[in-house]
Design brief:
The complex is a heterodimer of chains A (about 200) and B (about 450). Chain A is about 20% helix and about 35% strand. By secondary structure, chain A is α+β, with helices and mostly antiparallel strands. Chain A is globular, with a radius of gyration of 18 Å. Chain B contains 13 helices and 21 strands. The chains are: A alpha+beta (about 200), B alpha+beta (about 450).
């Protein structure tokens, strides 16, 4: 039976319409470097510095994913930003509060601090505005694997996909939108106290 | 208690002296007994009408460790069935929610209608001559109740009706379920969190019984401020609506417990939702309307509570219902159903959902710290030596009265009397007590007067 999974996700072939010019490869390398250095800040627990990588109007979103019938994935699998309850659907104010909370030293879910390792891979450039020669805003997709170990024996592995919109500013690239697709239904972790 | 090495529940729970054995939080035999004797008898919260508004709508829920289908049949009647085929046990539904006319078992294709009746059996005529379809319907709960939108069920046909089961805790649960402006009911679920945490389920249930004493573990959010007036500069994790109120901690004979508050006689509005002038106006309006509708009764405001055994609520900021589903002695699946007034303005709903998300559950800045406590309290109670030392439940021992218009056993100071009442009732269930005792009829709880 020929059937197509309907989803809202961008075309899996990726980067459609983007010619593989030198400018394209330079941009992808630039974006990869940005994402790696962002991961480095988080893993080094430089949370305040990490916040400076976010635009003031950032949308940070992690839907809850549901088990739905074949054919309903596009419409019903993931909760939507702006509607109802997700794992995260928040702005810079809230993210800053999360950092403030960790830095109180009495946020016991992160005190003592977890050991966290962010792996970022499969980076794809999906969209570039206005053009490859003058990239001001880039939609980049990647895979993440985040390992968290806390206290002695607690270990969690978060695996999924991310779609980021990165915006060029006077201070370099900043994250203007982040959609985090965690590949779990019931959350298999007691907490989401790490940044994605 | 023939299949347990704990033959005397009185040795596990001593509410007179204020001790509870750690064994009840970690022991696999006691856990199995709980599944058999508590979760097959008590009324359990299984969902909300707003999750299944139309005929054919279903929502897959849980009772104890077991998967249960909550379904509105073609006639509009709500049912709850064990999610397991009568033939070989396969789950007949592995979707979380949806709309259907039939549940078809993937294994051998037996099909069931939305009222649970066995309809289709492949090769029925040649292979199943005389099969009693009625006797092979999906296994239905014994009783189901819909109360102000919330749906509850029990496997015990002898259980009292749900309102009787609630007893005097009803008026407190009402404060979580009723509209903010005092109209009865009218809530809707705007989302459900589901997550697993490695702790005994009773830590979560007890946390919401009115364990106000654990407030220091939320110091980090109180320092930074995450409440509905935080952006306007207020510290704390919620608006201080109860700053002038008389707090009450109440243990009910059915095992329920609540922390509520009674506003002073003048019952004046206390500013809240200062982050947003539209919401400030809206909630001020709700306050005035509620006061006009309910009069003297409007002075009662909810904080938290647990309906025995595993349903908890947050009454106002935030607002929702939790079910603490047992997975093992040391693992629990938390489900939180977030509530708003169905007819609240969109702007209010949008603000509330954002507040709920930053407060509650595994991504919530407040409740992350609860989960940390429950995990390590469970983990550090498993040791051979640790198990010899019961938990101390002596807080405010004897400081209560039964002479209060709200009923139950009322304390006017932070107390573990509610937890003592809860575990006394837990003990009755483990003894297999009759419903009279489970409801506290005949005064099985302590009768001492307040000092």
């Amino acid at each position: 039976m020929a059937a197509v999974l309907e989803t809202n996700a961008p075309s899996p072939t990726g980067s459609a319409g983007l010619h593989r010019t030198d400018a394209y490869y330079r941009l992808r390398a630039d974006i990869e470097e940005f994402l790696y250095s962002e991961a480095e800040l988080l893993d080094e627990r430089r949370f305040r510095d990490w916040l400076t990588l976010l635009t003031d109007d950032i949308s940070y979103f992690m839907p809850i994913r549901r088990n739905v019938k074949f054919g309903q994935h596009g419409e019903r699998e993931n909760t939507r930003t702006g509607i109802g309850i997700s794992w995260f659907d928040e702005d810079k104010w809230t993210l800053t509060k999360r950092v403030d909370q960790i830095l109180t030293g009495v946020h016991f879910a992160e005190e003592p601090l977890s050991r966290v390792c962010h792996m970022v891979s499969n980076v794809q450039i999906k969209k570039v505005l206005p053009s490859l020669d003058d990239p001001r805003e880039v939609e980049a997709r990647c895979r993440f694997l985040i390992y968290q170990n806390r206290v002695e024996y607690e270990t969690y592995t978060f695996v999924g996909k991310r779609t980021d919109v990165l915006r060029m500013t006077d201070d370099g690239w900043k994250i203007a939108r982040r959609e985090i697709i965690l590949d779990q239904n019931v959350l298999l972790a007691k907490n989401l106290s790490v940044f994605f | 208690m023939s299949h347990s090495r704990f033959d005397d529940p009185d040795k596990l729970v001593d509410t007179d002296r204020g001790f509870v054995s750690r064994e009840i939080f970690v022991d696999p035999d006691l856990y199995k007994e709980e599944l058999e004797k508590v979760f097959t008898r008590a009324w359990l919260f299984i969902g909300h009408e707003s999750l299944i508004p139309k005929p054919g709508d279903f929502y897959t829920t849980r009772m104890g460790e077991e998967s249960v289908i909550l379904c509105r049949d073609k006639q509009g009647i709500v049912h709850a069935f064990l999610n397991s085929c009568r033939h070989r046990g396969m789950k007949v539904c592995r979707y979380e929610s949806g709309n259907t006319s039939l549940f078809t078992c993937p294994y051998h294709s037996w099909t069931y209608t939305t009222d649970g009746k066995l309809q289709g059996v492949p090769h029925f005529r040649t292979l199943y001559e005389g099969l009693d379809r009625e006797a092979n319907s999906l296994v239905s709960v014994a009783k189901l109740a819909i109360y102000k939108g919330t749906i509850w069920a029990t496997w015990d046909k002898d259980a009292p009706d749900f309102i009787t089961y609630l007893g005097d805790a009803k008026i407190h649960l009402d404060q979580a379920l009723d509209c903010r402006d005092g109209r009865s009911g009218g809530s809707e679920v705007i989302g459900v969190h589901k997550w697993i945490f490695p702790a005994n389920w009773k830590f979560a249930a007890e946390n919401f019984l009115g364990d106000t004493y654990h407030n220091p573990s939320h110091r980090s959010v109180d320092l930074i401020g995450i409440g509905p007036s935080a952006a306007a500069g207020k510290k704390g994790r919620r608006d201080d609506e109860l700053e002038k109120a008389q707090h009450v901690w109440i243990s009910f004979p059915e095992g329920h417990g609540v922390h509520s508050a009674i506003q002073p006689e003048e019952n004046e509005y206390i500013e809240s939702f200062l982050d947003n002038p539209v919401l400030e106006q809206y909630f001020r309006h709700c306050f005035e309307e509620r006061k006009r509708r309910l009069g003297e009764q409007a002075r009662l405001l909810p904080f938290v509570g647990t309906i025995f055994p595993n349903t908890s609520y947050h009454g106002r900021q935030p607002r929702g219902l939790c079910a603490w589903h047992p997975h093992s002695p040391t693992s629990t699946e938390g489900w939180r159903f977030f509530l708003v007034d169905a007819d609240a303005p969109q702007e209010a709903k949008d603000y509330l959902r954002r507040y709920y998300m930053r407060y509650s559950g595994p991504a919530g800045m407040t409740e992350q710290d609860d989960m940390e406590n429950w995990l390590y309290a469970t983990a550090a109670s498993m040791g051979t030596v640790a198990r010899r030392y019961p938990f101390n439940y002596q807080q405010s021992l004897g400081a209560w009265t039964k002479d209060h218009h709200l009923g139950g056993t009322v304390s006017l100071q932070i107390t573990e009397e509610i937890a003592r009442g809860y575990y006394a009732r837990w003990k009755s269930y483990l003894r297999g007590a009759a419903w009279d005792e489970l409801l506290g009829v005949g005064g099985n709880l302590p009768q001492r007067a307040a000092e």
